[in-house]
What we know:
This protein is an alpha/beta fold. The chain has helices at about 5-15, 35, 40-45, 60-65, 85-95, 110-120, 135-145, 165-180, 215-220, 235-245, 255-265, 265-290, 315-330, 335-340, 355-365, and strands at about 20, 75-80, 100-105, 120-125, 150-155, 180-185, 210-215, 230, 295-300, 305-310, 330, 335, 345-350. Helix 5 runs parallel beside helix 6 and helix 5 packs across helix 10. The mean pLDDT is about 95. Keywords: Aminotransferase, Lyase, Transferase. It comes from Gimesia fumaroli.
Amino acid sequence: MELPAFPLVQWFAAAEDRFDISLSHSDCEPLSVSDILSDAEQKAFADFPLGYGSFAGLEELRQSVADQYTSLKQDDVLIFGGASEAIYTFMRTNLNTGDEVVIQAPIFNSLKATAQAIGCRIIEWRPTNEITHEFDVSSLIDLCNEQTKLIVFNFPHNPSGQMISENELKAIVETAQRYDALIFSDEQFRMLEQPGTPLLPAACDLYDKAVSVTGVSKTLGLGGLRIGWLATRNRIVLKHAQEYRYYTTEMTNTPCQMLATQAMKHRVEILSRNRKRIVQNLKQLQSFCLRHENHLELHPPQAGSMAAVEQKTSFPSREFCQRLLDKQRVLLVPGEVMGISDRLLRIGLGRNGFKHGLNRLETFLHSISSEDL
């Protein structure tokens, strides 16, 4: 199986040592070990055994994860080395050449690319508007039929932050039930809703053939731990995923699982702090875009830790971002590498230093000559 290039990760890798400020990352402000562990816990961590751990993941961590859902038990959770490993493992163990997959697009690259590489027939569920990214659930339902093996979607949506309603989600579930299809729900940004935006139920709580994937990277700011999970009541999915992993990582890094377990104990406070920062940064971005309305137009997110901004210069989004990186050492994500309109930029809202990044972006906008516009 030959996997295609991964444009988003390639963009980050190429810029890795060339920026001082990121306005691009989709995760929240990274935490440190001292943010997670008290002094006493740090001393205890020094004695943490570094032997092999549980194949499914630390029991305490799996229970903490299960507690986030309304219908799951500890045994319904399988811990992975990040959500990316969970995605890849699920796709490899549930899809075969020729399977029909209905998938939301745009979406995180590996969700679609892995299914394509397996040889699946991909049917895209596109937004009604490629700039504002409203998704019509009735059109998704129309795409499904008796041949549908899997339905894949992501809400809150990356990169637009758009949502659907609970009734719309339940309509998708009813459609999957009608055709006996699996559901794979990317819920990486769930629990980062804007004020007034309802929290969607987890798909795995609504249907026994639904799988929810998430982790500690985006919402808790712990991307370096590489801890993610599959959550589902479907024993066959979990069994096949575990058996596949016997040939890859076997199990997940136990010290990182321990740190994730400690962080999960404080997730209510961490999430509250992160949501507050996102709201504050979004307000700054709204004011900024109004001041520079000739150059930028914000399409406000309903949830998540990022926003889609339409840039109105004469440059393609990649050139716009490349110039900003070269001149101001500020990193942005061009729409091109996300598989979205080339007029769009993805701006991350979850980190500190947001105002400093906007100040440099403002300097860059002022530097663009009238001939370039």
